[in-house]
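Two proteins, back to back. First:
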Amino acid sequence: MPDPGPNGLATVPWNHASLCGRFIASEALFALLYSFFRSGHWPVARARAVGGHGTVHRWHPRIHQGTPMKIDLPERKKLVHEMRFPVRWGDMDAMGHVNNTVYFRYLETARIDWMVAMGCRPDPDGQGPVIAHAFCNFYHQLEYPADVLLRMYVSDPGRTTFETWGTMERQSQPGVICAAGGATTIWVDFRQSKAVPLPDWMRALVE
């Protein structure tokens, strides 16, 4: 097994980099991976450089780190909502920590709570927000029991879109971000199934 390097990583020669398995939610990416499977030709992921070497998890010597997939929250954003909630026992998985998918539920709940508080309830016959892209960066594990503070921010209004962001921290450890994510939100006319300009009242909220 390679010697562990900084941050719990071990180094291996650069030319040994290989594809890191990921859970893929995007249908387009799934289709692409399926085509690789059918053809038998798999791409090789580019490893992150650490002193001229690729990196590999200390606990999983065969799983190499590819190019980091990380989106940083912008410095310029507007705080619009805070939500406090307990971690439920059922939020955890077999590894004893909150499952990655649950963080997206936390962010979704915060978005809906904020929209409802602003007087915009989901209405399939009217207009409202849909999510075009969502992500989450994981920094520290959350486990039961814990009380979480989720802060929601908005930024970058466009003609039909704006960005939402969220940070999650334990209330017992203020300022220590456990996870941070966001979503590109598009304003849609549901009957027409098409994007429409942001209403003036919504634009005023996110500017």
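And the second protein:
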Amino acid sequence: METHSGDMPPARARSAKTSRRRRRRSELLYQGKVFSLRRHIVEEPGGVRVLRDVVHHPGSAVILPVFSDGRILMIRQYRLAAEAALWELPAGTMDPGETPLQTARRELAEETGYRSRRWRKLLEFYPSPGLLAERMHLFLARNIEPGVARPEVDEKIRTRTFALPQLLRMIDHGKIVDAKSLAGLLYWARHSDSMAGGSR
């Protein structure tokens, strides 16, 4: 059964409106292709007036692709910020007008060539809320079928499947250090047994 992103829950909407009312001034410092950097002078809860530099990002989708035998598809690519090639779950930035599920479908196909016929939303989280406004949406992808990958020109991506116990050992030994992948894999390690009935 597919899941679709709905409207913002009332409580979250009220919180967002409250945050906007508390802002006093916002200045654009940098506008990039994917994100912007803004300096906000705000009054935070408790009446404290502060200056915050925040990276604003449209949000992204993270995919946890699980095959019928329980193996998980990972990708490996070089990350300049980490100065290393990292093992990660497939993921990508939401394009204008896309829902998180549409982004998940597109990114899985583009980066790996695989397509999924069963999707389930697992989590929403902020990877670094101290400075980054990006919200990530984690999806479980099952009933996976192979296809042709179409990565971006600057993406050099390698794919490989792993058993969950192997991935957990890699986490323990510092071989997986990407935050979104840690969140997704550790969530699956905790909840996979309760979802096993729908994995085939």
